[in-house]
Specification:
Distance between the termini: 42 Å
Number of helices: 12
Structural class: alpha/beta
Number of strands: 21
Strand order of the largest sheet: 12-13-16-11-19-17-18
Strand content: 15-25%
Radius of gyration: 24 Å
Shape: globular
Length: 498
């Protein structure tokens, strides 16, 4: 957006001189394309004959050398913001991350995408930044009632994100920029006296009576202090050792399905109601679809305009797909998870790992050697008449033309078909197309296990499960808020807060 052009347009509207406008602070920006006449809606504060205020206030972090310590296990969104919140409040965070630093992680991910060779400790799920580091950086959330979204966004800007995330209706950073922002956050923690350690997979809690007193890592090292557990929903080993140590867990409802890839031009033409697409000035269009199929939710998830589909498994023998976009969102394809609601009440088993086993079975059935992906043209899937041809894809590993009904549970395949038909009706017959392709599976939408925090506290203080892995958040911002609040609970319980 050209601020000078905006200033002149506002000046004409208000019949004032453009020179009298000393600054513009955008408070909200969104695109309304619902009725075919695309409008950019801007809510802005004008500063006429006065200097503008800062868009946000930077957080000042104290030095915590010699301060009380707290352990943060995991350095994804929940762990990152737990560590920053501890630091801000004068508590020394000791961060333990099982994977590699974010730049070394890029090499491991490159090996997976190029050669189909998985590093089970450092991949799209594990490593500095967690799953959020390479999952597009979408910051849209409905979590405002749970915490201070503005604080989370301001801290990201303070560490290198573009200021537009403070006012865009659907803020987005980009998978190409996130690694550098995460590295800046790590440097903030270290330069103020905290620690961030890699290759530290936690395998056991240290207990002192009923209290969690620290952790033991796979290499035998021990770290003493109360613990924020922010390990993400792919760290399944954590659930098992927590159950072994008597903490209460339960199965949790989740969702699973496929990645759906369309030409971005087609999505632009649908969303902007223009066969020519988005033109020169509009951004690549996104979408959000939802339908009820026999009382079951079918919906889009983690939509990536101009993005790519990636192999996101964290263990051998399991197929997991995800999507990501660079900051430009300039790719030729759009992709989205298309997922079906799975209710824990529908499972035969009632133990805490029942839904986890269900998801794991999907991932094993969909696994192909070298992380090739089973795929099917959208029109063939909907008509249930598979053919051997596929459109081009951004997926970096081989794709295998398949009948996805042979790999997906019946309830998922049938619900997706009906959901796609509903989405097609809402787009006047343009969504279902031979140019689109389904790749299976999309399974890591949310944790299939919840760590019951209230019940866990009955085991004694000292453990603070947080974020997606604990089953209390979904997405970067909600996980960040949950991690921050866990850190504040820890500080309050131990009297560490200043």
């Amino acid at each position: 957006m050209n601020e000078d052009r905006l200033k002149k347009a506002i000046a004409r509207k208000l019949h004032i001189s453009p020179d009298s406008i000393k600054g513009i602070r955008i408070r909200k920006r969104s695109i309304d394309a619902r009725h075919g006449d695309v409008k950019i809606q801007i809510d802005a504060a004008l500063y006429i004959n006065e200097e503008p205020e800062k868009l946000y206030e930077e957080t000042v972090f104290p030095n915590v050398d010699g301060s009380k310590k707290a352990i943060v296990v995991g350095f994804g969104p929940a762990g990152i913001f737990a560590a920053l919140t501890l630091l801000e409040n004068g508590i020394c965070p000791i961060v333990l991350e099982r994977g590699e630093d974010v730049h070394s992680r890029l090499k491991s991910i490159g090996t997976l995408s190029r050669d189909g060779k998985l590093n089970e400790e450092s991949n799209y799920a594990f490593g500095e930044g967690g799953a959020g580091a390479f999952s597009d950086g979408k910051l849209y959330t409905r979590s405002s009632k749970r915490g201070d979204v503005g604080r989370i966004l301001s801290l990201l800007v303070q560490h290198g994100a573009d200021e537009s995330i403070l006012y865009d209706a659907r803020p987005h950073i980009g998978s190409d920029r996130l690694p550098y922002i995460i590295e800046n956050i790590r440097n903030t923690i270290i330069s103020h006296g905290g620690e961030v350690l890699f290759g530290k997979r936690v395998v056991k809690l240290l207990r002192k009576g009923d209290e969690t007193a620290g952790v033991i890592c796979q290499d035998g090292s021990e770290y003493i202090g109360p613990v924020v557990l922010a390990t993400g929903h792919s760290a399944k080993d954590v659930y098992y050792f927590l159950q072994d140590e008597g903490f209460a867990l339960e199965a949790k409802s989740t969702a699973a399905g496929v990645r759906l890839e369309h030409p971005q031009h087609l999505i632009d033409s649908i969303q902007y109601h223009n066969d020519k697409g988005r033109g020169l000035y509009l951004p690549p269009a996104s979408y959000s679809f939802r339908a009820q199929v026999n009382g079951r939710g079918v919906y889009s998830f983690c939509m990536c305009p101009g993005g790519v589909v990636v192999p996101a498994a964290s263990e051998s023998g399991h197929a997991v797909l995800n999507g990501m976009s660079p900051s430009s969102r300039g790719g030729r394809k759009a992709n989205s998870g298309m997922i079906v609601e799975l209710r824990k009440e529908e499972l035969t088993d009632t133990d805490p790992f029942a839904m986890l086993r269900y998801i794991e079975e999907i991932e094993r059935r969909c696994f192909a050697e070298g992380f090739a992906a089973y795929a099917e043209r959208m029109t063939d899937f909907v008509s249930d008449r598979p053919k051997a041809t596929l459109p081009e894809t951004t997926y970096p590993r081989p794709v295998i033309a398949s009948r996805l009904d042979d790999y997906l549970p019946r309830i998922i395949a049938e619900s997706l078909r009906e959901g796609f038909k509903a989405f097609d009706r809402s787009t006047k017959g343009r969504f279902i197309t031979a140019e689109a392709m389904l790749l299976a599976p999309e399974t890591r939408t949310s944790s299939p296990v919840r760590i019951l925090r209230d019940e866990s506290m009955k085991q004694g203080r000292g453990l603070y499960p947080a974020g997606e892995g604990a089953g209390y958040a979904g997405g970067i911002v909600s996980a960040a808020i949950d991690g921050s609040e866990a850190a504040l609970r820890l500080g309050g319980d131990y009297g560490y807060l200043r």
